[in-house]
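Quick review question:
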């Protein structure tokens, strides 16, 4: 009974091969339609084929829990902004594994400049705010007028609580109601979105004896904006990405004693504010730790705590003593990061403990972001360049042509071998290769947009290797069928009996190839992963094509006289295969001979 049921299942699978073929055809039509509808009709080329600079950044050892997915994503965002600041388009910055970031910058970018800008930890400084203005140039907006003393002022993203501009208490953190937190937390992010207050005006004519902060002591008295900085500030448009990029570039060469212009986001995270900042008061390198936590005792919500080393603590004491006695916005210090003000808290009292708390309208995310910026500078993780590759566009084109020629030669050799050895069966193999190639091409086009997959030279090599892997599956199936024919069976039973045996061999072989590709993708970085990804993808497609196309097509062809009768050009010629006499005839002859002997 068990044998009969097994036979019925085999018969059913032989009777409906068209269903499997319909599935593969629908998949091809859907993928091809998606490719044309999305406009992605060609695969995205990797940096080695299109030309440009590729930089692999690897997180340095010894950073412990800092190397997290969140921090890696933050680093990608910051590096992406830097790359865009170089004035290029179509740059790609993406994580690879748990510790690597790949930065692909297309042709037209200076390699040395790209190397310098990407992956370095930016300079983090604490500077006094001299004045702040609307983001547009003076010619584009009405001349600002002074605001009443009790109004509020703009602030960078996520860092504001309403506060009277002239208030200063011995407590650490001022709140809307004037409540205080314990002494030693004397910094308040007390700026508010610029909706309720007109910007502080830039003095039209600074006094000749303008005083500026002393970088070593932080001492300042009623600082004024110099004429040159005033002119720069009037022309600055913080809503212009190009101008912000120039500020960021200028910040890398500015001296600590320089007064600079900078831009910062408002509390809504969308509007921009432009600042005139004094010389460096404290170097960000003196920050020893920064963390975010939820203040349950003081009712300030999410806050950011920071601590300084001994040098920074002494400077911070001098700075807070001086700033706490000044009027807004001069009682604020800006946290300047790569020419961008990430926060501009006001000081309400002198701090001598070397630690402070920044409070305001923080969410957990904005508090975490600010803490990371304070602790790690521009990047939340320190990276080292593990690989830098520069490829010219001409060389990339030559590599692509070379890869395509190699693939064509490999395919031609496979075709010649198949025709010479398998005759008519080679048509089945070629049709299967064509379907596999079409599926691979459409998926590569779609994955370029979906997951950022780029076809690089190692990926082309992986596709070439896949030709041999796919052809090997056909050979295993064809040889199983031939073995059954040699045992004296006709073609249809030979296909039915040969498939289960071939299937096991194909699955084991493809599993080993896919496992090797998965391991290679996991343990390698850079372009080698392109090879591993393509090899794994084509291996999976090989299984799909063999199950849904090659086997059903062979089942259909087994019913055709050209193959069923073993035509000499079918590849199933009984004479060429050395087919034995049918099994039944062998039994009858044996029985007859025994009768005669008897």
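Suggested answer, residue by residue:
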């Amino acid at each position: 009974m068990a044998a009969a049921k097994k036979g019925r299942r085999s018969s059913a699978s032989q009777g409906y091969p068209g269903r499997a073929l319909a599935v593969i055809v629908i998949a091809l039509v859907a993928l091809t339609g998606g490719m044309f509808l999305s406009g992605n009709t060609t695969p995205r080329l990797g940096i080695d084929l299109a030309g440009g600079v590729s930089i692999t950044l690897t997180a340095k050892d010894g950073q412990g829990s800092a190397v997290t997915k969140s921090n890696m994503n933050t680093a990608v965002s910051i590096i992406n902004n830097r790359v865009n600041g170089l004035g290029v388009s179509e740059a790609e910055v993406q994580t690879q594994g748990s510790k690597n970031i790949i930065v692909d910058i297309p042709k037209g970018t200076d390699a040395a400049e790209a190397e310098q800008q990407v992956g370095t930890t930016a300079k983090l400084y604490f500077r006094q705010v001299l004045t702040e203005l609307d983001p547009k140039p003076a010619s584009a907006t009405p001349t600002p007028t002074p605001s009443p003393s009790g109004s509020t002022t703009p602030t960078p993203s996520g860092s504001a609580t309403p506060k009277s501009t002239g208030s200063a208490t011995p407590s650490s953190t001022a709140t809307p109601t004037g409540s205080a937190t314990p002494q030693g937390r004397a910094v308040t992010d007390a700026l508010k979105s610029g909706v309720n207050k007109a910007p502080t005006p830039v003095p039209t004519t600074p006094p000749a004896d303008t005083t500026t902060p002393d970088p070593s002591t932080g001492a300042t008295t009623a600082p004024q904006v110099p004429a040159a900085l005033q002119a720069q500030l009037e022309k600055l448009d913080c809503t212009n990405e190009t101008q912000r990029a120039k500020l960021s570039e200028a910040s890398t060469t500015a001296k600590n004693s320089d007064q600079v212009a900078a831009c910062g986001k408002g509390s809504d995270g969308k509007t921009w504010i432009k600042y005139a900042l004094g010389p460096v008061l404290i170097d960000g390198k003196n920050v020893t730790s920064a963390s975010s936590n939820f203040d349950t005792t003081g009712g300030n919500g999410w806050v950011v705590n920071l601590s300084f080393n001994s040098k920074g603590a002494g400077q911070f004491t001098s700075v807070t003593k001086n700033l706490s006695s000044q009027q807004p916005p001069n009682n604020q210090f800006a946290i300047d990061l790569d020419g961008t003000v990430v926060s501009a808290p006001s000081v309400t009292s002198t701090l001598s403990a070397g630690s402070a708390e920044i409070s305001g309208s923080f969410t957990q995310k904005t508090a975490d972001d600010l803490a990371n910026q304070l602790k790690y500078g521009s990047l939340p993780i320190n990276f080292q360049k593990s690989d830098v590759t520069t490829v010219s566009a001409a060389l990339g084109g030559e590599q692509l042509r070379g890869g395509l020629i190699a693939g064509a030669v490999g395919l031609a050799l496979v075709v010649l071998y198949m025709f010479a050895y398998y005759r008519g069966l080679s048509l089945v193999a070629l049709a299967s290769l064509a379907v596999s190639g079409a599926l691979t091409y459409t998926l590569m086009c779609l994955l370029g947009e979906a997951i950022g997959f780029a076809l690089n030279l190692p990926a082309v090599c992986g596709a070439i290797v896949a030709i041999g892997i796919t052809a090997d599956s056909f050979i295993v199936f064809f040889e199983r069928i031939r073995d059954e024919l040699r045992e004296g069976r006709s073609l249809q039973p030979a296909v039915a009996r040969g498939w289960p045996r071939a299937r096991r061999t194909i699955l084991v072989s493809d599993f080993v190839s896919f496992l090797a590709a998965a391991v290679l993708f996991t343990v390698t970085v850079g372009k080698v992963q392109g090879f591993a990804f393509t090899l794994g993808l084509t291996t999976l497609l090989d299984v799909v094509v063999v199950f849904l196309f090659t086997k059903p097509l062979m089942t259909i062809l087994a019913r055709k006289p050209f193959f069923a009768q073993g035509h000499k050009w079918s590849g199933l010629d009984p004479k060429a295969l050395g087919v034995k006499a049918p099994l039944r005839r062998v039994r009858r002859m044996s029985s007859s001979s025994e009768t005669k002997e008897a």
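Why it works: The first strand starts at residue 52 and ends at 59. The CA atoms of residues 499 and 551 lie 8 Å apart.
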